[in-house]
Amino acid sequence: MGEIVGVKLQEVLKIAGAGLVALCLLMSGGCGGGSSAANVVTVSVTSNPSILILGQSATLIATVSGADNTNVTWGPCQYVYDVTKNGKTAPIDPPVQCPDDGSFGTLSNQQTTGTATYTAPDPAKFQLPDQTKFPNLHIVITATSVHDANKSGKANIKLISGIQGALTPVTASVPTKEQQLFFVTLTNDIQNKGVTWLITQNVPSTTNGVTTNYPELPTCSPTCGTITPDTNNPNVAVYTAPDTVPTAITPAQKDNPNSSSPQNLAIVATPKADNAGLVLGTITIVTGGPITFNGITPTIAPQGATLWDIYLDAPGISSASKINLTDSSGGTRTKDSTSGQIKILFPLPATSTTTTTTSATSTGARLRLNATDLLAAGPFTVSVADPAQPCNSNPTGTVCTATGASAFNIIPVRPTSTATVPDDVVQGVNTQNTRVTVDGGYFGPGGSLAKVYFQSLGNPGSILGLDPTRPSTSRQLNTLISPDQINTGSPGLYPLYVASNTIPVPNNAAATNMALFPDFSSSPPQKSATSISAGLNPGAIDIDPTLGVLAVAETGSNTIEFFGIGNGSLTSLGQVASSPAAPINVPTGLSVNRTNHTVAIVNYGTQTSTKNPDGSCKQSTSTGQSVTVLNVPGSPSPITPFSVTIPFTVAPGSVQGSSVCPAPMPYSIGVDPDSNLALI
Predict the structure, then answer these.
(1) Is 364 within 8 Å of 317 (Cβ atoms)?
(2) pTM score, two decimals?
(3) With bands split at pLDDT 50, 70 and 90, how would you rate the model's confidence at 10?
(4) What's the rounded mean pLDDT across residues 94-108?
(5) Cα dihedral sign, 84-85-88-91
(6) Is the torsion defined by CA of 281, 287, 288, 291 positive or negative?
(7) Spatial separation of the C-alpha atoms in residues 531 and 527, rounded to whole Å
(8) Do residues 632 and 590 make contact, with C-beta atoms less than 8 angstroms apart?
(9) How do strand 342-345 and strand 42-48 relate by DSSP bridges?
(10) pLDDT in tens, 265-307
């Protein structure tokens, strides 16, 4: 029995050993000690950029990792687009090869080292592939590793046409039986294919996973009116409203949120070269009827502003109406819906839970004046005319003015400045003009109503010229300051004024500051050859920048000395000693009030203390503490010097208690020139 067991055990061990050997061979590192795992080959492909406008090119870079041989082979140009099956949308698989005609772009300059070039279709020959047939179109470029043909990477490139449109007007209220002109401005429509027009009451919807968007929605014409493109320019179309205001959506659409407002419809302009660039507008069909022009508000407007709104109380006015502005000399400007400056107003919703209006008749209009309208000061009369409706009982098409206020006055206002860039300049560095941008307002169109002065207000030689390469606006002045204006004169902080060209007069100016710094790298500051003598132990200093006077507290001699500041020089203007009315007793600090040209001096005075047996302070006595105020030499409105004694009695029960010892002593002072208050 022992033999049988021994033989069977040997057979089992043989089988187990063979299994372990096989397992060791299968493991990437083997069963030996210390060998590393085998490298995993990966391929990645990047495109720069990953979104292309027609005609642009992208550089493709393939990177192979985990292989000694990093070369690749490039696959052909392919594309994918979204398809919907069984209610699920996903990219088509496998990708489709691009046609050879270049309509989906071309792949060129393929290098085995890992670079290639993809060029999007030429917009002069091809338009973007139809987005309705190829939704979410992407170009796919594949690179495969030479080391391991089973390893590859892909780059996805999105194609766009770059076509963008702007619809004018975006919104319009059109009376029944009347017409409204619409036009679209397209950019990047290289082939000038223009747009197709659609009017619809339906909204985009999804059924069984398939989404129907605006270009594919059904038209509501002729129930909701008609849209007729211009035969000579497809980007222009005329909308004609129906005879009556619609009462239902046509064709009917389930769950349409606009079903309660069938008088509203969308106007859709879709570029033929790329339907993804469609633009939308809104048409509101209103009941045609007479216009009642009651008045305008407000009746003033600021000259030079960027915009200003005038509201017309004119029930019945529509997008077909024209608004006239007539100045005092009889010159007239006409605004219509294509100007983008008129918005027709309707009543608010009847309740807080609905967004529909209670009436299809307008309540008035908002006229938005732009910078050009606000250029000239003076009175302007507002009048209204409509090609199909009477106004204030005047015949159809006749201009009518309001029965109430019908004129507004453009009033000159002071320009404002809020910031200057740059706000500092180094002298001697720039040999060319330096750009200076002033932000603010009421500058007029192109900055025509304002001038910028540096240092000297009203001096023609101090005016900064406008930068011809950067047009100014009513909110921003782009100017140039010359090297002479920067380099002439001493460094310092100087005003930059913005003043009106007309009225208010130039001395009613707004101001910011600009600092001029010396160029210490080329002209280091020079020390004066001779020192300036001062009194004993000078301890504090301050400057009156307007008068150019330096004040020095000479603590050791109990005097205040003044110096006149010149170009590289200081000249003593004399010392002021202590007097009964204005004592100076150990002056340790001073501060100049540059508004009234005085200097406040804090007097430290003296202090004596007694001590307890343990050496701690027992009691201190202070004398001579005060603030003295003197005139700065040259003050245009001198005062009588005076002094205020500083008490230092600490109230019992205060935070510090009643036995502060030694008592605090005044040492320095600062004056606020606006409030004439001082902090000691």
Answers:
(1) yes
(2) 0.61
(3) very low
(4) 92
(5) negative
(6) negative
(7) 9
(8) no
(9) unpaired
(10) 999 999 988 888 899 999 999 887 899 999 999 999 999 999 9
